[in-house]
TrEMBL record:
Residues 23-77 form the Rhodanese domain. InterPro entries: Rhodanese-like_dom (IPR001763), Rhodanese-like_dom_sf (IPR036873). This is Rhodanese domain-containing protein. Signal peptide: none annotated. Transmembrane segments: none annotated. The lineage of its organism: Bacteria, Pseudomonadati, Pseudomonadota, Alphaproteobacteria, Rhodobacterales. It comes from the Bacteria. Gene3D superfamilies: Rhodanese-like domain (3.40.250.10).
Length: 82
């Protein structure tokens, strides 16, 4: 899983390019589906558009994480002692 709490994913196209020094191994897994979210849905929409243009199966929370939480979508909080 790739997490970037309260930040945008800058230059994700470099993360998915195996020839890039910024490449992330998770993007090499064939048939992997990716889901992204941000607070309002705007940044994640841009991220998935980029990934979809590159041939990846990607989706996002259209209305964003805040709307998901507001409507009772399940969320988990990390264990701060782990």
């Amino acid at each position: 899983m790739v997490e970037t709490a309260r930040a945008r994913i800058e230059e994700i196209e470099f993360w998915v390019d195996p020839d890039s020094p910024c490449f992330k191994d998770i993007f090499a897994q064939e048939d992997k589906k990716f889901a992204f979210h941000c607070a309002s849905g705007w940044r994640s929409a841009i991220t998935i558009a980029t990934l979809q243009d590159m041939g990846f199966d990607a989706a996002h929370l259209k209305e964003g994480f805040f709307t998901w939480e507001k409507h009772g979508g399940p969320i988990e909080f990390p264990d701060k002692n782990a």
